[in-house]
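Hey,

Quick one before I head out. I ran the complex with adenosine-5'-triphosphate overnight. Inputs first:
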Amino acid sequence: MRVVEASDLHRSYRTRTGMWKRERKEVEAVRGVSFGIDQGELFGLLGPNGAGKTTTIKMLITLLLPTGGSARVLGHDVVTEPREVRRHIGYVFGGDRGLYERLNALDNLRYFAELYGVAPREQKQRIGYLLELVGLTGREKERVEGFSRGMRQRLHIARGLLHDPEVLFLDEPTIGIDPVGARELRATIGTLKEQGKTILLTTHYMFEADELCDRIAVIRAGELVAEGTPAVLKRRVSNGHVLEVETYGVPDSALAAVRSLAGVRTAAVEDRGQAQLLIVQVEPGAEVTSAVLGSLREVNVGRVSSREPTLEDAYVELVGGA
Ligand SMILES: Nc1ncnc2c1ncn2[C@@H]1O[C@H](COP(=O)(O)OP(=O)(O)OP(=O)(O)O)[C@@H](O)[C@H]1O
C-alpha cells in the first residue's frame, strides 16, 4: 500500500473579478494529478509559482475538497475519512504565521500539544525531544516575537511533529531563511527521513530537492510533466552536458547562431553582474565548443567551461515557457 496516493486529482476555484461588472471566472488550479509516495520516501513536488503545488497539498491534508479525482493517505480517503487522515499527518507551511507571538516557544508547544491531544504525561518528554531535534533547546523560554524567521520555521516544524505523525507535508519550509539556517533545516529534514517518516516537500530550490528527495514530480499549470529520481530527471532531460561561456554583451544574432548549431539543444543567457553567462545544453556525444566560440567571434569572451547538467537545468527545460 502506498502511504500517499493521489488519483486524477482536480481542483478549480471560482473567483469574481471586476469592481463594477462582476464576472465569474473559473481557475483550474489542478488538472488530473496522480502520484504515489511509498513508506519512508521523501517525495519532492516542484513547479513554478501558481503551478498548483499548495492546492495539491491542501487537498491531501483535508483543508480543501477536490473537485474531481480522489486521494488517500495511509489508506484513508481524504474526503470521507478526514479525521483519520489528520490523525496521521503533520504539515508545515513556509512563512511565519500560526504561532503565538506573546508566548514563549515552550508555551506555544504546550498549547498545541493540548490542542492535538498529546497525552499530558507524554507532553514534557515529547516537547523536550522536539526542541532538541529542531535546535531550539535553551531558547524555549524566549517569546516568539523575538525569534528570527529561521527559528520560527524550526518551531513550526516542532509544532507539526507534536503528535508524532507518520506523514509530513512541508510546503516551502526553507523559504526566506538564510543559507546557514536553511542548511540546518535540511539536516533536520534528513533526520526525519532517517527516522522513517514519509515526507512530501515542495521547494523552489533545485539543489535542495536534489540533495533531499528520493523522487521528484514536476508540476506545471496544474499537470504533472515529469516524475522520477533526481538522477533520472537529469538524464532524461539533459543527458548531454552543459557548456558555459562567460561573455560581455551577446547580440541576439549570435545567440540565434549558437541555437542553430548542430548538437546544441538549447541556449540561454543569464546575467552575472557585469558579464553574461551563455548556457548551452549540448546533445549527448556532440562536441560544439569550437563551433560555439566561432559563432561568438564578434563577442568579448571570458572563461569557457563544461559541466554536468544539474537538476535546475532539467527543471528549466521541463517548465520552460511556463
Ligand atoms: N483561494 C483561491 N482562490 C482562487 N484562486 C486560487 C486560490 N488559491 C490558489 N488559486 C490559484 O490556483 C493556482 C494554483 O495555485 P497554488 O497556490 O496551488 O500554486 P503553487 O504551485 O503552490 O504556487 P507557489 O509556488 O507560488 O506557492 C494559481 O493560479 C492561483 O492563482
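The chain has two domains: 2-228, 236-321.

Talk tomorrow,
K.
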